Amino acid sequence: MAAEISRFLENKALAVAFLNRELGAYSRFPAPKKLRHSVTQEMKKILLLSDTHSHMDDVILKYVEQADEVWHAGDIGNLEVTDTLKKNKLLRAVYGNIDDDKARMEFPLHNRFFCEGVAVWITHIGGYPGKYNQEIRAEITKNPPKLFICGHSHILKVIYDKKLNLLHMNPGAAGKSGFHQVRTMLRFVIDGETIKDLEIVELSKK
Fold first, then answer.
1. Which helix (DSSP H) or strand (DSSP E) does residue 191 occupy?
2. CA atoms within 13 A on the CB side of 183
3. What's the rounded Cα separation, in Å, for the pair 137 and 86?
């Protein structure tokens, strides 16, 4: 799957269809019993971004306005970025390896929470299925979320971990610092225990 996702820019429509096919298969599996949570809210539209490295622009904010919640997977940069995101939307975020003490005081290294009936774990450097970071490997094996999100690599990935029955997302980088050629985000809907309607948001080239 990772190889197919890495070529998504060559055929964006095909990539989106492929991602949602995987989500359809994934949604047939219930959340682990130990992470079950009562669902009391309506479905949520999520905008997921990472590695802004102090960059924010009107295009990103356009997508922010369309979301119910914004999730940031670290390497925020200047906190003006998160201050802007928090003005009108619920923000869930973690700090990354380039973030300073102010960011580390405001945001955690790991953010675990429920959105609707989906257990979520966000951390900046987490690896991906088959190559999880050593620091989180034991915990994610013992107590896996349904949705595991990280950033850091600047490479968009969506991978289903069959062994742990979780979905991994990395939205790529929304900022302009780094080796990536195209800036990306992800958006999707959480409806009860279902993750659906996944879209790749392709921003302008750097």
1. strand 182-191
2. 19
3. 31
pLDDT, tens digit, 9 for 90 and up, residues 108-121: 999 999 999 999 99
- 55, two tokens: 């960059």
pLDDT of residue 188: 98
Dihedral pair phi/psi, residue 136, rounded to 5°: -115, 0
Whole-angstrom distance, CA of residue 109 vs CA of residue 128:
17
Q: At 131, list the tokens.
A: 């190559």
Is the pLDDT at 98 greater than 70, yes or no? Answer: yes
Mean of pLDDT values over 138-151:
98
Alpha helical stretches, state H, the chain: 2-6, 12-26, 58-65, 80-86, 101-106, 134-142
For 160-200, the pLDDT digits (tens) are 999 999 999 999 999 999 899 999 999 999 999 999 999 99
Distance between alpha carbon 53 and the CA centroid of its chain, in Å? 16
Contacts of 77 (CB under 8 A, 6+ apart): 52, 53, 54, 55, 98, 99, 175
Predicted model pTM: 0.82
In contact, 2 and 159? CB cutoff 8 Å? yes
How many CB atoms sit inside 10 A of residue 91's CB? 17
* Residue whose structure tokens are 């690896």: 127
Helices (H), 146-185: none
